[in-house]
Amino acid sequence: MTRTQEKTRTKANLSQVVEHLNRMIADNIVYYQKVRHYHWNIIGDQFFPLHAVFEQEYETTSEVIDLLAERVRALGQIPLHTLDAALSATNLEEDEAVPVQKEMVRRAANDLARMVAEMNNIHQVMEEANDYGSTNMIEDLIEKTEKRIWMLRSFLGEPIRT
């Protein structure tokens, strides 16, 4: 890192990055619980494949939460870690309903699309903070999440949009 980059990578810049990372943790915690709920409560003719899809979604999401929290720690901060804090910080909504199978898939895809939009916003903040580790991480997450959206929307027969 050059001196110019060191000067522009301030605590204020990194604190904005951490704030966004914590919001992403919150979103992923809420999403995790939503797809776990869908995994438990799916019924209908697509039970077996969707039961497996939702299991893969919550397992993947658990890994994402860990990745984000460890990045916050690498930046010297404490990651968001309580359910109350997650519910206060999230951009997503819990799902108390038990929707029909296709609606479960649609809601999951829509939440992932909201998270991609947030990741695109945070990407700019990370670049401005010269936080290359977080920038690379978020670019990888965007690509992987867009693939997950594609797969869910393909199941629905809907156009691919993020």
Task: Give me a quick take on this structure.
By secondary structure, the protein is an all-alpha fold. The longest helix is centred in the first third of the chain and has 31 residues, at 11-41. The two termini are 34 Å apart.
Structural overview:
77% of the residues lie in helices and 0% in strands. The protein is an all-alpha fold and 162 residues long. The chain has one domain (9-156): Ferritin (Up-down Bundle), CATH 1.20.1260. The longest helix has 31 residues, at 11-41. It is elongated. The chain starts with a helix and ends in a 6-residue tail after the last helix.
Chart the SSEs and their pairings.
Layout: H1 3-8, H2 11-41, H3 47-74, H4 83-89, H5 101-128, H6 132-156
Helix pairs in contact: 2-3, 2-4, 2-5, 5-6
Keywords:
162 residues, mainly alpha, Ferritin, 6 helices, 0% strand
Order of helix and strand elements from N to C terminus: HHHHHH
Strand content: under 5%
Q: Mean of residue pLDDT?
A: 91
Q: What is the CATH topology classification name? A: Ferritin
CATH class division: Mainly Alpha
Number of individual domains: 1
CATH architecture: Up-down Bundle
Helix content: over 70%
Alpha-beta classification: mainly alpha
Question: Residue ranges: pLDDT <50 for 5 or more in a row?
Answer: none
**Overall 3D form:** elongated
Round the Cα radius of gyration to an integer and report it. Answer: 17 Å
- Give the biggest beta sheet: none
CATH superfamily: Ferritin, core subunit, four-helix bundle
| Termini gap | 34 Å
Number of strands: 0
